[in-house]
Design goal:
The chain is α+β, with helices and mostly antiparallel strands. 14% of the residues lie in helices and 18% in strands. Monomer.
């Protein structure tokens, strides 16, 4: 089954779908040697070669993904975002790093609020 390229790369931990869309639009992604276009779909096969900036990317089918669940108590002062242009701390700064995957926050709390995510 084919999937949108940006979804495959986001699932592999190379950024959010929106970030990946920007990378694709900039011409930095190739699939089997051809520059990818936004909206391209790919079929995950053993011979598939996806590159970002010339670096070969490892991708897996969604059924092969390991699902990790983590309960996190967000203290006051942390943001529920991946990165902040003002340099404030985020919940993702304190989570363990994952290789080839990324954490997704379920729930969202204001910066001045504490609670479970």
């Amino acid at each position: 089954m084919s999937e949108k390229l940006q979804k495959v790369l986001a699932r592999a931990g190379h950024g959010s779908r929106r970030e990946i869309e920007s990378i694709i639009e900039a011409g930095r992604v190739s699939v089997d040697g051809k520059i990818a276009k936004l909206g391209d779909r790919v079929e995950i096969t053993p011979g598939l070669k996806i590159r970002i900036d010339g670096h070969l990317i490892s991708v897996r089918e969604s059924a092969e993904q390991i699902c990790r669940v983590l309960a996190y108590y967000k203290p006051e002062g942390e943001l529920c975002t991946r990165n902040d242009p003002e340099g404030r701390p985020t919940v993702f700064d304190r989570l363990p790093k994952l290789r080839g995957a990324r954490w997704i926050a379920v729930g969202r709390l204001d910066v001045n609020t504490c609670g479970l995510l």
